[in-house]
Amino acid sequence: MTGPALVVQGLRKSYALPGGGRTTAVADVSFSVPAGGSLGIVGESGSGKTTVARILVGLVRPDAGTIAVNGRERTPGRRRGGMPLGPGARRAARLSRAREIQIVFQDPYVSLDPRLTARQCLHTALRLHGRYEGQAATGRIGELLDQVGLGKREADARPRGLSGGQRQRLAIARALAVEPEVLVLDEAVAALDVSIQAQILRLLADIRRETGVALVFVSHDLAVVRHITDDTLVMRRGRAVETGPTARVLESPEDPYTRLLLSSVPHDGWDPAETVRLRAELAER
Length: 285
Hints:
alpha/beta; transport; nucleotide-binding; ABC transporter ATP-binding protein; ATP-binding; AAA+_ATPase; 6-stranded mixed β-sheet
């Protein structure tokens, strides 16, 4: 692997509460992912992992911190020369970031235009980003469909005519259409049957190997993270409590919260009482 494709430093995000005060969703989170590498971000609901994913792709503006892709600043809302960006500059910045960082959501059905066939969906993505025209666009669409394992029938079908796994394959193809440096996957296989999950994970591993794209895999499923990632970052209450190689983090965790997550997964000899004990100990901290 080469240098870092993605470098995140000191991300912070808080939200105002209805009755006054603020709640912190992300607190000083930093990490990096090398080109062709894969990072898992894990934690329970409310840990802040999805907020980090949404900040990465510009759906949420951080209060502080920076995001760089191959050394280029890509922090949402970042000002130039101390001045706010105008509407035209903001749109250009969004498109520039989107060409480098793409996201695949848990439920692709809500992010796919129900009026467009799979082929039209990919053509729209290429046109939006000024990538390929005419016969070149037609050829690129064919390559993308083939890359994710969708045939002619699926290419001419609208989202309602596709299975959950096929819709997720289309969402991945759309994300790859602009040839991003980083692909963020937010619980991207959580809604799929186990057998379909395995197919999508194999597809992602192949894509990573063939294209060199860096993956940021946000998930609550430790088995999935173990299968697809090189490194893992564990989040609790907006903070990163542990990070390191996935094998080490999941086999020899150092932080009590990581041990709690692992103890919550049923396995041979599993004792639920141990999970209750660990959670009680954490509550006292």
